[in-house]
Amino acid sequence: MTLDSADRVYSSPRTLARYVRCHFSGDDPCDYFRQVAAMVPDDADVVVDLGSNVGRSTFDAAAKARFVLGLDIAHEAIRVASELARGEAVAYDAALEGGATERRTVRRPETSGLVAFAVADAARPPVRDGVADAVLLLNLIDRLPRPRAAIEAAARLLRPGGVLVLTDPFTWLEEFTPREEWLGGAAGVRAAIEAAGLAIEEERDVTLVIRDHARRVETVTPRLFKARRRGGGSS
Ligand SMILES: C[S@@+](CC[C@H](N)C(=O)[O-])C[C@H]1O[C@@H](n2cnc3c(N)ncnc32)[C@H](O)[C@@H]1O
Hints:
By secondary structure, the protein is an alpha/beta fold.
């Protein structure tokens, strides 16, 4: 899938409303994004969230870090994330039942750190190599044409000792990723992370609960990897 097509898919009004609800409605009893953002080191200055969509993980990481940059290819997701960052209320149509919807609004979570958002390709982030204390790569790699390149780009952004937090359910689809680029399951992704010069420190399942409408909930169990770029101390 080209960058333009990915932008179209993730910028459609229905998909956007689904992500706004998933990220900010408080529907998820597992509080997936807060759990994952808790892996960001306490003293982090700079965090980059690749594939942030409307930015819940970006805001949650900014509860710990001084500055978090959310990057995504979907213009509409970045527009919404930027509105939230400015303190604006964002309205979306929450699906109820039988096709009925209800207009609801969300606001950004309060954070001690600063956030900013920009449209960018995760494989070529507009950030200098070696500046990030942590990089988030959440549920993105199985939506990319070259997932290995995105892991390598994330590793390059990290300073020595910096931390990559990667989650993914490994839902490889040929419409997003040519079959020869699929990394397989946990073993394949683990190998790709290690090949990018990172040492895995923690690996486990996490649960994300997504409410579609009043009578349908989807449960996803992404694998989480916390990995550190070699060459720095641990924290
Ligand atoms: C499955 S969603 C995950 C979003 C968010 N990280 C989460 O966990 O809810 C994949 C996201 O990746 C974005 N994306 C797809 N291709 C991208 C690329 N080449 N660079 C940056 N973002 C991309 C999509 O716009 C979408 O927001």
